[in-house]
């Protein structure tokens, strides 16, 4: 899930639509509401945040500092103007990157992936499972070097499992990461359906099931 902070509802709705097309859920806040949420949100809610995107705010360095008090997720600020003073102030407040608008959401996703790799001291830009490569920037996985197209929800589930390959994740954690913690229109059990379809496709193509599941404990990618 990507959290977008901006004073303009039109902007947050636009990002919601654009990120959804790439298979990423978003949660949107006005600055004041965000300050309250980030201070009171449970740790489990913050763990499913892939990145924070700061748009137009009266003082964007304020939410940036609040984020740094609670989360290590990448923070990217969107700049309306090319201002050295503003850019330096944002970096000092804890922002990881400052991007001049307009910018394509795929570039934002690529920057998020790059920041996460550096933070985790990882050299590889993908997770390998047998002949499969799983990317974290919205691209379809590859099998034997060829793209393996997946519906966006199944692709996002696979990416989430790959990004947490060292531990098991629960159905709730997967749902929150893929659909967002504030989506009340979709039932959590939809995750089981997506994973069932995903496992069937992977088993058919790979010859084995790379997703291990244990009742009550959750799912884990076998790498």
TrEMBL record:
It comes from the Bacteria. Transmembrane segments: none annotated. Residues 124-223 form the OmpR/PhoB-type domain. One of its GO terms (cellular component) is protein-DNA complex. GO terms for molecular function: phosphorelay response regulator activity; transcription cis-regulatory region binding. GO terms for biological process: regulation of DNA-templated transcription. Keywords: DNA-binding, Transcription, Transcription regulation. InterPro entries: CheY-like_superfamily, OmpR/PhoB-type_DNA-bd, Sig_transdc_resp-reg_C-effctor, Sig_transdc_resp-reg_receiver, WalR-like, WH-like_DNA-bd_sf. CDD domains: trans_reg_C. Residues 1-116 form the Response regulatory domain. Residues 124-223 bind DNA. PANTHER family: REGULATOR OF RPOS, TRANSCRIPTIONAL REGULATORY PROTEIN TCTD. This is Response regulator transcription factor.
